[in-house]
Write a structure and sequence with these properties.
The protein has about 260 residues and is α+β, with helices and mostly antiparallel strands. The chain folds into two domains: about 45 residues; about 200 residues, Jelly Rolls (Sandwich), CATH 2.60.120. It has three helices and 13 strands, in the order H-E-E-E-E-E-E-E-E-E-E-E-H-H-E-E. Strand 9 and strand 10 form a beta hairpin. The longest helix has about 45 residues.
Length: about 260
């Protein structure tokens, strides 16, 4: 009888404790499940991005109309760097613009750039290899030292400053960071709608192939470079410009839409 009594008493004391532990386990499991879901959601989002530059190799990149990665470009400290030649667009003997060797149609391109003092470069999209230079076929997001490079004061209303659709639409607000600092940018292309984002702010928006677009291009220098320049392809290459100045790019990735 004494044994039975002890067991009964022990059970009565232990049951609330076990019940409490069970509830805590359920709550912990719930929290862990919710955390796992949040982690999965984040991973799912990151899985949508295609990494175009792994920080260590030039894999996937080549010179425009070339079968190799030009000597004027180097992979260093997690960046793709164009080594300045001091010769402007004439550039290095084995230089020139580079492209990622795959065409994209609807996408968001995300990357960071840093320019040297007095430097000039650019980011091309929807480019083709039909002509001798990519800029004869592709819109360009300008990369520039707005303080020192003469282009900042040329063009119309600042349309050659950083973040702008080069020589066509100025980036507003103009929020590029000073020389030596990293600028984070995104370019979104979707069925002709194009948005430039610079340092977290939309600074340019336009629509390809519309009457407004055709009129804008007609009043620019581009028809003299290519009479069909306004008829931008709906799928093309992403490119980085060698303008003869030191410039660095990193964290290059694209999300297809």
């Amino acid at each position: 009888m004494k044994k039975v009594s002890v067991i009964v008493i022990f059970s009565l004391v232990l049951m609330p404790f076990l019940s409490s532990c069970k509830e805590k386990t359920k709550e912990t499991t719930k929290i862990e499940t919710e955390t796992d879901k949040e982690t999965m959601d984040k991973n799912d989002d990151s899985d949508d991005w295609i990494v175009l530059f792994d920080g260590t190799t030039s894999d996937g990149w080549r010179g425009y109309k070339k079968d190799h990665f030009p000597e004027a470009w180097k992979i260093e400290d997690g960046t793709i760097r164009c080594i300045g030649s001091g010769r402007g667009e004439a550039g290095h003997k084995d230089g020139g613009d580079i492209i990622y060797d795959k065409k994209f149609k609807n996408f968001t391109l995300s990357l960071e750039w840093k320019i040297s003092e007095g430097g000039n470069s650019g980011i091309f999209y929807l480019g083709q290899e039909d002509l001798d230079y990519i800029w004869k076929t592709a819109p360009e997001m300008q990369v520039l030292d707005n303080d020192k490079h003469p282009d900042a004061k040329l063009g119309v209303d600042g349309n050659r400053q950083a973040g702008s659709l080069y020589d066509l639409i100025p980036a507003k607000p103009q929020n590029a960071k000073p020389v030596g600092e990293w600028n984070q940018v995104e370019i979104t292309v979707y069925n002709g709608t194009v948005v430039h984002k610079q340092n977290g702010v939309n600074v340019v928006e336009y629509h390809l192939w519309t009457p407004e677009w055709n009129a804008l291009v007609a009043g620019s220098k581009f028809p003299s470079l290519n009479k069909d320049w306004a008829d931008v392809a709906n799928e093309g290459y992403i490119g980085l410009q060698d303008h003869g100045d030191d410039v660095w790019f990193r964290n290059i990735k694209v999300k297809e839409l």
